[in-house]
What we know:
By secondary structure, the protein is mainly alpha-helical. Helix content is 53%, strand content 9%.
Amino acid sequence: xxxxxxxxxxxxxxxxxxxxxxxxxxxxxxxxxxxxxxxxxxxxxxxxxxxxxxxxxxxxxxxxxxxxxxxxxxxxxxxxxxxxxxxxxxxxxxxxxxxxxxxxxxxxxxxxxxxxxxxxxxxxxxxxxxxxxxxxxxxxxxxxxxxxxxxxxxxxxxxxxxxxxxxxxxxxxxxxxxxxxxxxxxxxxxxxxxxxxxxxxxxxxxxxxxxxxxxxxxxxxx
Length: 222
């Protein structure tokens, strides 16, 4: 391949026409406005459930993730784990080699002991992600995009990193509706790269509808 063709290939790695980005942002704002109103009422119900089960700690937590162009962004989630989840995870991985290997491959644990009683329910229906509609309104996330990865996963993203960070991460995406908890980390990266290189508005609408279907069917979420 000539130098000119190599340059063109790199340039077209992620296609982002201005019209596409404008329409996508308008859809993001409209969708997030509806989602934010819905989230407000659900948060009240979840807070009551927290108190009933004796959980008096904070309802919402912020987490730093990798945003577009590699910039750090703060995203919001309903807390589904114990407050000291990171410390508990470190202990689990040190003491249990099988779980350590499972986490290395999938970047999550199937039967995660850190998840609270209410947390298991809200994860089953992806309710924990609802506060991210606010992050869509502020422009940190899109409704549809690649997964917002953790900075500790950056090195393991390897050759996929440069492509994935060219696109704003989303609440849902191609990986979430095509495997989610059943896919290993490498497959997840391949799916996100595929989305970044081939995304269209039609593809986004398809992902949104499939996400809603899977949430009600309780498929893939753990």
